[in-house]
Design a protein that fits this description.
Layout (H helix, E strand, L loop, with lengths): L1 E6 L3 H17 L5 E6 L2 H7 L6 E5 L7 H11 L4 E6 L2 H6 L7 E4 L4 H17 L5 E5 L4 E5 L3 E7 L2 E6 L3 E4 L3 H8 L4 E3 L4 E4 L3 E5 L2 E4 L2 E4 L2 H15 L4
Parallel strand pairs: 1-2, 1-3, 3-4, 4-5
Antiparallel strand pairs: 6-7, 8-9, 8-12, 9-10, 11-12, 13-14, 14-15
Length: 237
């Protein structure tokens, strides 16, 4: 079941999208969904629990620009699929800066909507949606995809989760992350580092290059790490 959110201030347009979802579900018996609707950005941002799969978001809203709302949502949730609703293509193109999946033009036609939904469903079916992490801080809860994590390390009894451009500090232990992320091809190269094999760029002696960083490979982990890497690179995924 997909969790779908519509953020659209025009009731007629929101109703139109709701009816299209009903028709799409009728046309595709294996498709099921839950739906929440908002007509303002701020209530959505205040209530957002990082649990949406698809967000239909109007570009022009009374209380906030849709692009600004999208940026705030994306800062909390790297996984949600954003589809902009707009009357102007130029605004939709700008949406790709926040990782928008696609856009639909008003007035929305069912044929176009169904094509977009077909693409969304295919993409979500191939994405490993179970491999996500909820990161909790004093200020917020943020959801990130395991696919975006380059490596995880232990530092002074904290867990540091590295992505391409950010580091998130969490409580916990590396073993629990190792067990959870094993299906997503995360393997220890030493007692302190859990590496996403997707981002391994090379091996140089006793070090592995992960993204743009060199991490030490311990003697005790070397054999298992290199075997897992060889299997991954060989295509047994």
């Amino acid at each position: 079941m997909l969790n779908i959110v519509i953020l659209e201030d025009q009731q007629e347009q929101a109703e139109r999208l709701s009816r299209m979802l009903e028709q799409y579900a009728s046309d595709h018996p294996d498709f099921s969904y839950s739906l929440k609707r908002y007509d303002r950005s701020i209530p959505l941002l205040e209530e957002y629990k990082c649990d949406a799969d698809v967000l239909f978001l109007d570009i022009q809203l009374p209380d906030m620009l849709g692009m600004d709302a999208a940026k705030k949502i994306r800062a909390m949730d790297s996984n949600v699929t954003i589809i902009f609703i707009t009357m102007l293509t130029q605004y939709a193109i700008e949406g790709y800066s926040v990782g928008a999946f696609d856009y639909v033009l008003k007035p929305v036609r069912y044929e176009e909507f169904a094509v977009k939904m077909d693409r969304v469903c295919r993409m979500l079916a191939h994405r490993n949606t179970s491999m996500t992490l909820e990161l909790r801080t004093k200020e917020e809860v943020r959801r990130i995809s395991a696919d975006d994590i380059t490596y995880i390390e232990v530092s002074n009894h904290d867990i540091l989760i590295h992505t391409g451009d950010q580091v998130y500090r969490q409580w916990g232990n590396l073993k629990s992350y190792e067990e959870k992320l094993a299906p997503a091809h995360f393997v220890r190269c030493n007692a302190c580092y859990l590496v996403n094999l997707k981002y391994v760029r090379g091996i140089n002696g006793d070090a592995v290059t992960v993204h743009h960083e060199n991490l030490a490979i311990s003697k005790t982990k070397r054999r298992d790490f290199l075997a897992a890497l060889a299997q991954y690179k060989g295509g047994s995924r």
